[in-house]
Amino acid sequence: MLKFVGTAQAYPVKRAPVLRAEDFQEIADRYAPDKGAEQAARCSQCGVPYCSVHCPLHNHIPDWLRLTAEGRLREAYELSNSTSTMPEICGRICPQDRLCEGNCVIEFSGHGAVTIGAVEKYITDTAWDNGWVEPLVAAPARGQSVGIIGAGPAGLTTAEYLRVLGYDVHVYDRYDRAGGLMTYGIPGFKLEKDIVIRRVDRLAAGGIVFHQNVDIGRDLSFDDLRARHDAVLIATGVYKPREIKAPGVGSDGVVAALDFLVASNRKGFGDSVPEFDSGALNAQGKNVVVIGGGDTAMDCVRTAVRQGATSVRCLYRRDRANMPGSQREVANAEEEGVEFVWLSSPQAFEADDRVTAVRAARMRLGAPDASGRRAPEVDPGGDLTLPADLVIKALGFDAEDLPRLFGASGLGVSRWGTVLTNAQTMMTSIDGVFAAGDIVRGASLVVWAIRDGRDVAATMHRYLKAKAMSEKVAA
Fold it and tell me: What is the pTM of this model?
């Protein structure tokens, strides 16, 4: 260990931009065994591991780095898996530059952070290859069942923990495949779909029952769902796109980010996607403008490149230093030919039969807003017009109107539409109904959804044990 002085930081080698822009495969492979151990050995094993502190799951990062450096990969995997249900997924898509690696002690010393995410991916992929990932085995049946709405990371994590405890677990999802945004939102070049599928298959093999193409409130009422199960979890995520208020925003060719990404991922699965085939949700041969500065915007610009767009530009109203997305994703996008138009905000969308251009205002950063970030304001220095055959709105997501969609008038929600829960129990305003993930905290990271799933499984377990005891006494 402690080799950070003499050993330079080295991530797995990325494929050349011109090659990776031709497909949706991940842009870098895992480490070779000697390189994985070498990079893990750079860890300083500091007394206060800020990497773990700033990881939402509080993973035992220095410990499994040490085991990796010593060649004890199976033990490293088991320790990593003890706090996370999806370590190989987090290793791929977590913004480590903002979390663990961004708070690495040797990063502060100028030696470059330990490549934590790449090592996490390496040890878990190695575990899958060698059969170390054990089947999900349930405890003796408890005679109680749980219904989970949403097959995203929060729902799947909760399902796994409760199934291990012996509960019958049923997961209901509106899509035809489980995984939520991991399946249909995140492109394959960041997370190849077989990585998600093998996790879902493991859960199904362990006895978790998946009900696909079920829209709660339409195909199955919320009351009927509650009647079927002893407890219910709402883990739907947030899918309502934030809108732009500008003339021409309703023109053909101005589309929502999730519609664009879902169409692309469905095409990758080999599904029939008429909107893609017609060109409505296909960037091939088009001048593409993506509006937004988060990770979803980065997914869109990089997807457009792979679809063969003529040009791809990203408009963001702040500068690079103040954007919410991962700086690594910005760098990857720039390598692949994306042009970033910083400090610009759309004012109108010009259109004939469909959109032809975006008129934008130059912006500048003024005084800090309520969040502490400098608020953008119009710069009188002039406007700009960008040609556009396809405009993708990637301004984030809000919660859908769940009380109305579910027909659950007693479900308490915040003024943002997120579900209100008790901070200690994670239970909603309806007895026996819990909520976790983005539908509670707002649009956030997969790793936070996993954390919420882990936490709510523990509180649901306590509730169900108390309920079983109460029913036993009453009998």
Answer: 0.95
